[in-house]
Design a protein that fits this description.
Layout (H helix, E strand, L loop, with lengths): L6 H18 L4 H20 L2 H14 L3 H13 L3 H12 L9 H17 L5 E7 L7 E4 L2 E3 L7 E3 L3 E9 L2 E9 L4 E7 L12 E2 L2 H36 L3 E2 L2 E2 L4 H34 L4 E2 L13 E7 L2 E7 L1
Parallel strand pairs: 1-7
Antiparallel strand pairs: 1-4, 2-3, 2-5, 5-6, 8-11, 9-10, 12-13
Helix pairs in contact: 1-2, 2-3, 3-4, 4-5, 4-6, 5-6, 7-8
Length: 328
């Protein structure tokens, strides 16, 4: 690096920079003149320590008339500002600039100085390695200092400028952030540790399909009809035996004293027939449906797996009535 330490050294440097600009481009005279003026102002700012303002003027001048001298001092400004990675690239650009064989010695010297200063700069550029630790799930994005980090660069050492750095890993709505202060020449590392993935949502509970419920209803009706028919049949049989043994009855003709028993007998016979018909119809519908329908299924009315297998029926009989209760 060759900073201009005093005004006495500043004047020769201005001449050194202005001369190449005057011969570097035979195109637009106004561009050459403007570039020369900006270069002289930049050198004054550089000597005053205002490297950011000097860099702006040097960059503009180099865009108007690219020369090794302007690029060299722009790289030196970047070094002073701590932008070492960008400075190394600017030095490299200067070292690769083509010049004519008849170019002034000051331009050749600028290229030689760029190569030497870059070689001295490279060992001072720190590196930063960003690593991921933990499950990544459907995908993780990494941002370093506000810029997305390509997946291929995760786990690789990258040149960075000295100073404060921030790395963030994003997985869905989760964010993990780590910070690092990197010194010149340091090989730093940031490890972003991702927590375990959340448990997957539970599968929908299995329930009884609607047709299977209908099948059980049919079987229940069949059982109820069979129970009613059986109970009514027993009552009718008892009444028939009672009438057959009664002295008031002869040849199936009974006197007024057995009118109540006869009425009960006929009602029981009717219920028996009705129960048998209903029971057969219920079984005829329910049993085929149960045989053809899966035992479990998915749906809004599905029950938890722990309740599976609690399907069943239970007939009941009370005085004057009968039925079936069940769990589906």
């Amino acid at each position: 690096m060759r900073p201009l330490a005093s005004p006495l050294l500043l004047i020769p440097a201005i001449v050194m920079m202005a001369a190449p600009i005057a011969h570097a481009d035979k195109g637009d005279p106004a561009a050459r003149s403007t570039a020369r003026k900006l270069g002289q102002e930049a050198l004054k700012l550089f000597d005053a320590g205002d490297y950011a303002a000097a860099l702006d003027k040097l960059t503009t001048a180099n865009q108007l008339v690219p020369t090794p001298t302007l690029g060299l001092y722009a790289a030196r400004c970047l070094v002073k500002l701590g932008r070492l990675v960008e400075a190394s690239e600017r030095y490299l650009d200067v070292s690769r600039m083509p010049i004519d064989r008849g170019a002034q010695a000051v331009m050749r010297k600028a290229i030689i100085d760029a190569v030497a200063e870059r070689d001295k700069l490279l060992p001072t550029i720190p590196t930063l390695e960003v690593q991921l630790d933990g499950p990544q799930g459907d995908g993780v994005t990494v941002v370093v200092d506000g810029q997305p980090l390509l997946p291929g660069l995760i786990g690789e050492k990258r040149p960075v400028d000295p100073g404060h750095h921030k790395a963030t890993a994003k997985r869905g709505e989760l964010e993990v952030t780590e910070l690092a202060d990197v010194e010149p020449g340091q090989a730093a590392r940031i490890v972003l540790r991702l927590p375990p993935l959340p448990p997957p949502p539970p599968p929908p509970a299995a329930g009884v399909p609607a047709m299977r419920v209908a099948g059980w209803v049919g079987v229940s009706v069949g059982v109820a009809g069979a129970v009613v028919g059986a109970v009514s049949g027993i009552i009718a049989l008892e009444d028939a035996q009672s009438l057959g043994a009664s002295k008031s009855c002869a040849n199936f003709v009974c006197g007024p004293a057995e009118a109540g028993t006869i009425a009960t007998y006929h009602a029981a016979r009717t219920l028996t027939t009705t129960g048998i018909v209903v029971g057969l119809a219920g079984f005829a519908f329910g049993i085929p449906v149960l045989l053809k329908t899966p035992k479990t299924g998915d749906g809004p009315g599905a029950r938890p797996p722990g309740e599976a297998g609690r399907t069943g029926i239970e007939p009941w009989v009370s005085l004057g009535s009968a039925g079936v209760r069940g769990t589906f």
